[in-house]
Design goal:
- Belongs to the THEM4/THEM5 thioesterase family.
- Keywords: Apoptosis, Cell membrane, Cell projection, Cytoplasm, Fatty acid metabolism, Hydrolase, Lipid metabolism, Membrane, Transit peptide.
- One of its GO terms (biological process) is fatty acid metabolic process.
- GO terms for molecular function: hydrolase activity.
- The chain is an alpha+beta fold.
- The protein has a single domain (about 35-85, about 90-145), classed as Thiol Ester Dehydrase, Chain A, CATH 3.10.129.10.
- Helices cover about 15% and strands about 35% of the residues.
- Strand 4 (about 110-120) and strand 5 (about 125-135) form a beta hairpin.
- The termini are far apart.
- The structure holds dodecyl-COA.
- Dodecyl-COA binds next to helix 1, strand 3 and strand 6.
Length: about 150
């Protein structure tokens, strides 16, 4: 299965969190499960992602939620509308991002993110995401993603 981010054309692939063309980026790769209607990704923070010794920096966790949510939005919209991302790539930007840090996230183990779309409406998708360190749910996020149109940022 191909990661959602790898469907992005090059001009959409420079993002620090998930762009495959960003040499300094996190290169997050998100996968969509059509049966479960949920997305997954995994990321193992490095020692330089420290907040308090032994625990992951919250800004990094927000970045993971952010980029996992943008990809989840693309997959959920494609799923809802019967689109093939291979033929019709979709790209979303973050309009709003809320992150709740439920407990400290240990630095060392692989983190797993799970995402679900709560709402798919027009250009807007609302995504809920969870970050797990092993069995422990440490972060819960919610993002509003808006599909970009031609002339974005202009
Ligand atoms: C070359 C390109 C490369 C593009 C490469 C893309 C890289 C992606 C990177 C990954 C993620 C990021 O970090 S992105 C970087 C951080 N984000 C940004 O810089 C985005 C800056 N903001 C914007 O450009 C704009 O505000 C947009 C695009 C988000 C929305 O503006 P718009 O296009 O005019 O949309 P608009 O009609 O107002 O809103 C559409 C729907 O979304 C809702 N909505 C809009 N903003 C919000 C909000 N803050 N909170 C809640 N909901 C909101 C509206 O109520 C509406 O819902 P309803 O009434 O229909 O229900």
């Amino acid at each position: 299965m191909k990661a959602i981010q790898l469907h992005y054309p090059p001009e959409w692939a420079h993002c620090y969190g998930c762009g495959y063309l960003n040499p300094m980026g996190l290169h997050l790769q998100t996968y969509w499960n059509r049966e479960r209607k949920e997305s997954r990704t995994a990321f193992t923070p490095s020692p330089h992602h420290t907040a308090i010794p032994g625990f992951v920096y919250g800004g990094l966790l927000a970045s993971l939620v952010d980029c996992h949510a943008t990809a989840t939005a693309a997959a959920a919209k494609a799923d809802a509308e019967g689109l093939d991302l291979e033929k019709t790539p979709l790209r979303f930007v973050t309009a709003s991002l809320k992150v709740d840090y439920l407990k400290p996230t240990p630095l060392g183990p692989e983190l797993v993110l799970v995402g679900r779309a709560r709402e798919v409406k027009g250009r807007k998708v609302v995504v809920e995401a969870e970050v797990y360190a092993g069995e422990a749910l440490t972060v819960r996020g919610e993002a509003v993603l808006v599909q970009i149109t031609e002339g974005f940022g202009g």
